[in-house]
Task: inverse folding
């Protein structure tokens, strides 16, 4: 164990530790500034107020040139002396305090942990500071935008989800992880993947193939697709969590790797792609760090039923809700004038059914890895 | 890449490949025997019948001596010439065929993949072989018990869930994975962890600490608990999937490592423990491979609210359903005469509230790793 500790000490001594220190003291400074402003106003006899940029649809702007969603300038004031906002004001201060403690202790916490840390019964009352986590998570997002610091910079993590294999070596908290040698399981993606935690080392891969589900990822990994096609293989267990999206964005922006998505032919698959590509309304303030405007949608495509000669049994009827969602997605500003996507969504609606990636198994166990994806890659047959 | 291929070839040439071959041909033989019996009966002018052992509560036996749930001898006949069972007979044959193909191709498939593989419209009718996966999964379980072959031996996998770090090196499909060097993400647990896929190599760890959720696992990993306490750290993202349970069982039975669980103080946590320890009714035929009768429940305990001096805010009221579930669990034969567990469940009911592992953060960010678990480990204060 002595050796282990030495290794760790060595890691702490790298310039990376300096980077963490710098980032953390910048975040601490932001929290301090927030606190000082409130203290100053109070001492001057004025009402304490926090100003929170608005994370609403109306304050979300589609930046056509950059190809991402951005947050507008609108902000809401959260005064202390207002019955409507007093509780939220207090909650904002509590979470800011927890974050300060986390950074001081050089620890991270889960969203649920932060909730518990702040949850208590206000002395002399029967009122809780927080009742459920549903109240707590948005307050943390408020703090992210108010401070201009990302959740990761606030030392808060979400669920870990997704895994990775392929022709790349990453360094994670000082440990070198060779993703070419990760067996059938793979490297489990952490929730915080900022450059001070995860660094990219040796990478021969020419692109990233991102698939929707772990079960599909298993098929590609078992067939060693990443080896035969020199790529990195990731999945996000459905809608990829922030950690997974951020990692894809870093692979794209820092290593210039195209991100190619294989998702289901249904509104949910289209929505996952839309979020990977342009960002989402609720996290629009994060888009420049999360969105990948050049991400490609390789399939499953509406045309595939005919083009691949699939059996009727792969069809899953569209529900009324699917049709509603499809029309909403077609009306997104970034899809609205995109002929390819209008055709794609229209094709699905005219089909009257949706299809999953797994349905390709009806052709052959490895049709998806041996034929479908290689053909589409070669022909550059994708939507973007 | 040439080097990679050489490495892989080397792996294929190990005795392990022999083991896989042997296992697979045994499974093939079982499928063939099933098919031959049906063919023989048919050719002799008798009705084809499949005999399926019953996976019901009434056919589940609590083996007190072994401390696990077992399947009894009852079986149901599934004749072809019966409107009630004809469809299931056909479905059973279809899945047996798919499994034969999978083994021949030396590939594995997901539960969903197997469903799709068999799903088609019966020629000349409007009848589908399968409509939903809900019909398909139980047929696969039927085949497991009918053939006496585990799902993994049938080359079928489920979702990957959970991760691992700690003082152990595993070999996964020939790749050596040092779980001491897996950063913040960890090694993602695969769905199939049989000895021909995963081997244990170097292990200094003295026990396994299994926690319920990934977020709690992060706290322990960040505090490098596995290093300071020389253990292995796992989580199963809630109710651990078969792959995770099987891995824990192998670590226990092959390496003699105690399995110590840190779960929530609620009926769900108690149930997770019960399944890890004794197995479940629906998978009773698998218990000797999955159950860990010596597994320990370290916490969270009903007494902890007072013993740890927790704040009222950590209390989550028990719902009517929680109370119902708690009483059901207390009546399980393996808890029914267990004084410790009767006291434990009774304590929770008398508290009137449940508590999550995360609630310990109200004491201190690392109270759970620095104080709570170490104290309980030292005092051997657990239920088993």
Result:
């Amino acid at each position: 164990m002595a050796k282990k500790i030495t290794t760790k000490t060595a890691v702490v001594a790298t310039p990376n530790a300096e980077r963490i220190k710098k980032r953390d003291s910048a975040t601490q400074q932001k929290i301090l500034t927030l606190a000082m402003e409130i203290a100053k106003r109070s001492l001057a006899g004025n009402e304490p107020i926090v100003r929170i940029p608005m994370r609403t649809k109306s304050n979300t702007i589609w930046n056509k040139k950059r190809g991402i969603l951005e947050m507008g300038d609108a902000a809401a004031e959260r005064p202390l002396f207002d019955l409507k906002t007093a509780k939220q004001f207090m909650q904002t201060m509590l979470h800011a305090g927890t974050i300060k403690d986390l950074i001081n202790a050089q620890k991270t916490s889960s969203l649920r942990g932060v909730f518990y840390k702040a949850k208590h019964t206000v002395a002399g009352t029967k009122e809780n500071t927080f009742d459920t986590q549903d109240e707590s998570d948005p307050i943390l997002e408020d703090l992210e935008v108010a401070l201009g610091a990302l959740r990761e910079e606030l030392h808060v993590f979400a669920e870990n989800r997704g895994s990775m294999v392929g022709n790349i070596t990453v360094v994670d908290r000082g440990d070198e992880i060779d993703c070419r040698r990760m067996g059938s399981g793979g490297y489990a993606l952490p929730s915080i993947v900022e450059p001070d935690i995860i660094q990219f080392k040796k990478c021969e891969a020419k692109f990233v193939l991102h698939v929707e589900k772990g079960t599909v990822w298993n098929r590609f990994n078992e067939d060693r697709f990443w080896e035969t096609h020199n790529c990195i293989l990731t999945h996000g267990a459905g809608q990829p969590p922030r950690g997974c999206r951020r990692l894809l964005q870093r692979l794209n922006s820092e290593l210039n790797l195209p991100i190619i998505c294989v998702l289901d032919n249904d509104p949910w698959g289209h929505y996952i792609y839309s979020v990977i590509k342009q960002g989402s309304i609720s996290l629009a303030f994060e888009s420049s760090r999360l969105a990948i405007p050049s991400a490609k949608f390789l399939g499953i495509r509406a045309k595939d039923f005919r083009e691949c000669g699939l059996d009727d049994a792969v069809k899953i009827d569209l529900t009324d809700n699917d049709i509603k969602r499809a029309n909403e997605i077609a009306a997104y500003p970034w899809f609205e004038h995109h002929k390819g996507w209008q055709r794609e969504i229209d094709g699905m609606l005219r089909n009257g059914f949706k299809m999953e990636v797994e349905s390709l198994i009806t052709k052959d166990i490895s049709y998806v890895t041996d034929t479908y994806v290689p053909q589409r890659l070669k022909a550059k047959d994708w939507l973007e």
In short: The first strand of chain B starts at residue 49 and ends at 53.
